């Protein structure tokens, strides 16, 4: 039984969902955002914080150019400190082969009017003073930046409420509802909320939720680990992506570190779906995956034989808290201190992990699907959701309110996965 109605329902309180709520509210609608945990409780509060245009799939670049423009004025627009720092993004190369890969991407940058350039070893000190190591050079985009993930997501949420949106946390959306080929609402903790327009922006949990209305989203979950250090003297304003460690320095001097190496993949029953779509990428990059059989698989098996009737209906976890890879944490600190020997007194204050939902071509789905009508899918951001959050939210609002986005979303349609063999990932980072 339907107990309430909303102009539009948004499922997911990450940066994409909160930005969509904000832009819809600015247009005079009164969206209802439902989040199972807390705003920014999952990957939108657990990512690196990079806002990067360079190195992306060519389809994403126009969206990121516009998103970067929004980021530059976001603190004024939202009236909030999100720790935006436009210090550039530097991708390091230890080999000429890596530099050649970067050089090949410059055509994408030139076509999009980006300020991306290649830098040689002698130029690195001007960007990251005092960094050790043997480097051939790197790719650098001065207009890139970084921000604090939880602060930015929460700022969008507050601004959305100020303009008329409603945000309810601790509300588990168990299923979407549709009838006669059109959306009718969502089921929230056993009760139905009616809405003819629904946005699924539930991140890692979007795929099982979409299946409740017969929509198939191919995705895999990878577990990403991040660590934070004690404060250090100022090192660089740039976000740096190296082969063994990536880092950015916060305003308080603390560093967010992420180690390179194999990607942690928690094996689930869902891995059996869409094997054909993912297999070419798996095989080509098989040395880069580290498979883990444990809690995630046990959780799926428990759903097949639940102890209580309620557990079977829940398509995702209310408060997922994946465990960080402790070896990666140790390696990231050791590598950072190798690059900056003067920081040998740094210690790790905390570490965490989050689930990234990755599509076969590592490009998200942003699409008003043809059936059921009224459903907008915004998922599969493949680790790019934070940086793309502002523009994704605006485009979602346009799809919901106008039925037509201001930027070309042809390459982001869900149907691309059923129209033939999807392209391999074309990003270089």
Describe, in plain words, how this protein is organized in 3D.
The chain is α/β, with parallel strands linked by helices and 429 residues long. The chain has a single domain (2-417), classed as FAD/NAD(P)-binding domain. The protein has twelve helices and 22 strands. Strand 18 (263-266), helix 8 (275-284) and strand 19 form a beta-alpha-beta unit. Mean pLDDT is 90; it is low at 306-315.
Which class of secondary structure composition applies to the elements? alpha/beta
The CATH H-level homologous superfamily: FAD/NAD(P)-binding domain
Low-confidence stretches: 306-315
**How far apart lie the N and C ends?**
48 Å
Strand content: 15-25%
How many helices? The count is: 12
Output mean pLDDT: 90
Helix coverage percent = 25-40%
Shape descriptor:
globular
The largest pleated sheet is described as: 8 strands, mixed
Which sequence of strands runs across the widest sheet? 6-7-5-15-16-17-14-20
Number of extended strands: 22
Domain count: 1
Précis, in short:
The chain is of the alpha/beta class and about 425 residues long.
Q: What's the helix and strand layout?
A:
Blueprint: E1 2-5, E2 9-11, H1 15-26, E3 32-35, E4 50-51, H2 61-72, H3 74-78, E5 89-93, H4 96-112, E6 117-120, H5 124-127, E7 137-141, E8 145-146, H6 149-162, E9 166-169, E10 173-179, E11 182-188, E12 191-194, E13 198-200, H7 206-210, E14 220-229, E15 239-241, E16 245-249, E17 255-259, E18 263-266, H8 275-284, E19 289-292, H9 295-304, H10 309-313, H11 326-339, E20 348-358, E21 365-368, E22 375-379, H12 385-401
Parallel strand pairs: 1-12, 2-3, 2-13, 3-9, 5-15, 13-22, 18-19
Antiparallel strand pairs: 4-8, 5-7, 6-7, 10-11, 11-12, 14-17, 14-20, 15-16, 16-17, 21-22
């Amino acid at each position: 039984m339907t107990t309430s109605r909303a102009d539009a329902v948004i499922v997911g309180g990450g940066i994409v969902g909160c930005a969509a709520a904000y832009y819809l509210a600015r247009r005079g609608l009164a969206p209802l955002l439902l989040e199972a945990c807390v705003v920014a409780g999952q990957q939108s509060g657990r990512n690196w914080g990079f806002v990067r245009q360079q190195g992306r799939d060519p389809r994403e670049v126009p969206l990121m150019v516009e998103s970067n423009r929004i980021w530059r004025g976001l603190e004024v627009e939202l009236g909030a400190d999100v720790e935006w720092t436009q210090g550039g993004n530097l991708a390091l190369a230890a080999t000429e082969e890596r530099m050649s890969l970067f050089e090949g991407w410059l055509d994408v940058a030139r076509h999009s009017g980006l300020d991306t350039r290649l830098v040689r070893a002698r130029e690195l000190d001007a960007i990251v003073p005092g960094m050790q190591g043997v480097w051939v050079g790197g790719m650098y985009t001065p207009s890139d930046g970084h921000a604090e993930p939880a602060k930015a997501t929460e700022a969008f949420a507050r601004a959305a409420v100020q303009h008329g949106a409603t945000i309810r946390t601790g509300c588990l959306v168990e299923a979407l509802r549709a009838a006669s080929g059109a959306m009718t609402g969502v089921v929230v903790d056993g009760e139905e909320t009616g809405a003819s327009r629904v946005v699924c922006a539930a991140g890692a949990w979007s795929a099982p939720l979409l299946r409740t209305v017969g929509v198939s989203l191919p995705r895999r979950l990878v577990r990403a680990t991040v660590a934070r250090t004690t404060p250090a003297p100022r090192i660089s304003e740039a976000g740096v992506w190296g082969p063994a460690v990536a880092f950015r320095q916060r305003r308080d001097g603390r560093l967010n570190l992420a180690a390179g190496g194999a990607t942690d993949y928690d094996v689930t029953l869902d891995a059996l779906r869409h094997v054909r779509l993912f297999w070419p990428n798996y095989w080509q990059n098989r040395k880069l995956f580290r498979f883990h059989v444990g809690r995630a698989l046990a959780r799926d098996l428990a759903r097949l034989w639940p102890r209580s009737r309620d557990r079977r209906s829940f398509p995702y976890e209310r408060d997922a808290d994946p465990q960080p890879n402790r070896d990666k944490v140790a390696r990231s600190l050791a590598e950072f201190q190798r690059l900056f020997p003067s920081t040998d007194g740094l210690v790790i204050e905390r570490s965490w992990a989050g689930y990234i939902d990755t599509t076969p071509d590592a490009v998200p789905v942003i699409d008003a699907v043809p059936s059921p009508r009224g459903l907008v899918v915004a998922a599969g951001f493949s680790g790019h959701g934070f940086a793309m959050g502002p523009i994704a939210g605006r485009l979602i609002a346009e799809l919901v309110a106008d039925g037509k986005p201001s930027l070309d979303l042809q390459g982001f349609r869900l149907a691309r996965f059923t129209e033939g063999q999807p392209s391999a990932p074309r990003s270089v980072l």
